[in-house]
Design a protein that fits this description.
By secondary structure, the chain is an alpha/beta fold. The protein folds into two domains: about 5-30 and about 280-410, Alpha-Beta Complex (Aspartate Aminotransferase, domain 1); about 45-275, Type I PLP-dependent aspartate aminotransferase-like (Major domain) (Aspartate Aminotransferase, domain 2), CATH 3.40.640. It contains 16 helices and 15 strands. It has helices at about 5-10, 10-25, 40-45, 65-85, 95-105, 135, 155-165, 180-190, 205-210, 245-255, 260-275, 280-300, 330-335, 365-370, 375-390, 395-410; strands at about 30, 55, 60, 90, 115, 140-145, 170, 195-200, 220-225, 235-240, 305, 315-320, 340, 345, 360-365. It has a seven-stranded mixed beta sheet, with helices on both faces. Strands 11-12-15-14 form a four-stranded antiparallel beta sheet. Strand 7 (about 170), helix 8 and strand 8 (about 195-200) form a beta-alpha-beta unit. The longest helix has 23 residues, at about 280-300. The radius of gyration is 21 Å and the shape is globular. The structure holds pyridoxal-5'-phosphate. Pyridoxal-5'-phosphate binds near residues 95, 124, 201 and 225. Pyridoxal-5'-phosphate binds near residues 33, 96, 174 and 199.
Length: about 425
C-alpha cells in the first residue's frame, strides 16, 4: 500500500499514513469494532466520487452529473437488500451513530421516550447517553444486564417497559458477547406499543453471514455500521419496512446530513459484494470460533469473562477478581506496549470509571481477516495472560512483543 502521490504533496501526512499501515501490520488489532477492509474497498473509498455532490437518492438528485453516483448507490442498496432481506435500505448514513439519529428523528418528537441498555452494561453513546444530543433531546431510561449472568435481563426490561411506557426500545450493543433475542424484545415492544430499533453495528457481518440471528423482519428498524464485522469501509446503514421508508429517507437527508459520502458508498457497494461471496460466511464463522478459542484460553488462565464466554466476535473480561490491582486502562497500556491493541472497557456493575474501567474488551474480526485460526487465538490468549499477569515487567512485555511480531509475519496484511 503505497502513498506516493500523497508523499509528493505532503510528506508529513504520507509518513503518518505509512506508519499507520505498518502499525496495523505489525501489531494485533483486537479492538472489537475494528477490522481490515480489503484493498478493493479502500481503493473505492479513495476514488473520484469524493468530488461528487449527489444530494437526494438514486434517480432523484438535486444535482446533474449523478449517473455514476446513481449506479454505485443502487448497487450498494441492491447488495444490502440481498444480504439482509430488508424491504427498504438507506446506505447514506455517514456512520452508525447517524443511522440511529435518523431513526429517532424520523419517528420521535423531542421529549419522547427511549428505553435502551445502560452504557456501562454494553450500550452505545447514540442510544441516549447525556453526552450525545440524543440523551438531551429525548427522555431516556436504561435497562441492564443481569448482574449474575451477564445476559440481558429480558424480564427486567419487560417490567421497565411496562412502567416507563417508552416510544422506542433500542436493542443491539457495543460490548455484549451473547446472542441477542430480538423476538423477545419485540414482544416487549409490542406489549407497550413501542417501536423497536435493533442496532447491529457490531454484528452486521455476523448477521449478513447468518452466523447471528437477524432482526430484519422482526424489529421495525435495523441500523448498522459498515466497517466493523462487515469490513465494507467506514459508514452506516438503516433498514426498515416500506411503510417507514419515506420518513427514514428524509430523516437521513435532509434531516441529518447534506451530500452523501459517495466514495464511502462505493466502498460499501464493494464490501457488500465481498460479503455476498461464500467465503464471507467462512470468515464470519471463523471469527466466532476464534473468539470462543480466545475466551477459553483466557478462562484457563484464570480470567473471568462476563457471561462466562461468547457467542459472537468479542469477549469482555472483568479483571476485578483475578487482577484486583490492575485496571482495564493499565491492562490496555501494557498490552499495547506488547503489540496487542484492545481497549479498557466498563463491565456490568462497574466500580471504577469510564476513563479507568475494570475490564478489557477483545475482538477477533481483524485477526480473522488476516488469517488467524483458533490455535493462533489460543496463543494470543496466552500472550494476553502473560502481559496482564505482569503489566510492569518490561522483559515480559519485550518477549511478548517478539512473539506478536512472529504471529504478524506469519499472517501478512495488504500485500506485504
Ligand atoms: C459502533 C456502534 C455504533 C456506531 O458507531 P459509529 O462509530 O458511529 O459508526 C452504534 N451502535 C453501536 C451499538 C455500536 O457499537
Amino acid at each position: 500500500m503505497d502513498h506516493d502521490q500523497v508523499r509528493d504533496v505532503d510528506p508529513d501526512v504520507a509518513d503518518a499514513l505509512e506508519s499507520e499501515v505498518d502499525r496495523q501490520r505489525e501489531t494485533l488489532q483486537m479492538i472489537a469494532s475494528e477490522n481490515h477492509a480489503s484493498q478493493a474497498v479502500i481503493d473505492a473509498q479513495g476514488s473520484a466520487l469524493t468530488n461528487k455532490y449527489a444530494e437526494g437518492y438514486p434517480g432523484s438528485r438535486y444535482y446533474g452529473g449523478c449517473e455514476h453516483a446513481d449506479e454505485v448507490e443502487q448497487l450498494a442498496i441492491d447488495r444490502a437488500t440481498e444480504l439482509f432481506g430488508a424491504e427498504h435500505v438507506n446506505v447514506q448514513p455517514h456512520s452508525g451513530t447517524q443511522a440511529n439519529q435518523a431513526v429517532y428523528f424520523a419517528m420521535l418528537e423531542p421529549g419522547d421516550k427511549i428505553l435502551s441498555l445502560d452504557l456501562t452494561h454494553g450500550g452505545h453513546l447514540s442510544h441516549g447517553h447525556p453526552a450525545n444530543f440524543v440523551g438531551q433531546l429525548y427522555d431516556v431510561a436504561q435497562y441492564e444486564v443481569d448482574a449474575e449472568t451477564g445476559y440481558v435481563d429480558y424480564e427486567g426490561l419487560a417490567e421497565q417497559a411496562e412502567a416507563f411506557d417508552p416510544d422506542i426500545i433500542v436493542s443491539g450493543y457495543s460490548a455484549y458477547p451473547r446472542e441477542i433475542e430480538w423476538e423477545r424484545i419485540q414482544e416487549t415492544a409490542d406489549s407497550v406499543d413501542a417501536l423497536h430499533l435493533a442496532d447491529i453495528a457490531h454484528i452486521t457481518g455476523l448477521v449478513a453471514a447468518g452466523v447471528h440471528e437477524s432482526p430484519v423482519g422482526v424489529a421495525d428498524f435495523v441500523t448498522g455500521s459498515t466497517h466493523k464485522t462487515i469490513r465494507s469501509g467506514r459508514g452506516g446503514i438503516v433498514m426498515c419496512d416500506e411503510e417507514y421508508a419515506d420518513d427514514v429517507d428524509s430523516a437521513v437527508f435532509p434531516g441529518g446530513q447534506g451530500g452523501p459520502l459517495m466514495h464511502n458508498i462505493a466502498g460499501k457497494a464493494v464490501g457488500f459484494k465481498e460479503a455476498l461471496e461464500p467465503a464471507f460466511e467462512d470468515y464470519a464463522e471463523q471469527t466466532v470460533a476464534n473468539a470462543k478459542a480466545l475466551g477459553e484460553s483466557l478462562s484457563e488462565h484464570g480470567f473471568s469473562l462476563v457471561s462466562g464466554g461468547t457467542d459472537n466476535h468479542l469477549v469482555l473480561v472483568d479483571l476485578r477478581e483475578s487482577h484486583p490491582n490492575t485496571s482495564g486502562g493499565d491492562a490496555e497500556e501494557a498490552l499495547e506496549a506488547a503489540g496487542i491493541v484492545l481497549n479498557g472497557n466498563t463491565v456490568p456493575g462497574e466500580t471504577r470509571s469510564a476513563f479507568d474501567p475494570s475490564g478489557i474488551r477483545a475482538g477477533t474480526p481483524a485477526l480473522t481477516t488476516r488469517g488467524f485460526d483458533e490455535d493462533d487465538c489460543r496463543t494470543v490468549g496466552d500472550l494476553i495472560a502473560r502481559v496482564v499477569d505482569a503489566p510492569d515487567d518490561d522483559s515480559v512485555i519485550a518477549d511478548v512483543r517478539e512473539e506478536v511480531t512472529d504471529l504478524c509475519a506469519a499472517n501478512p496484511l495488504y500485500d506485504e
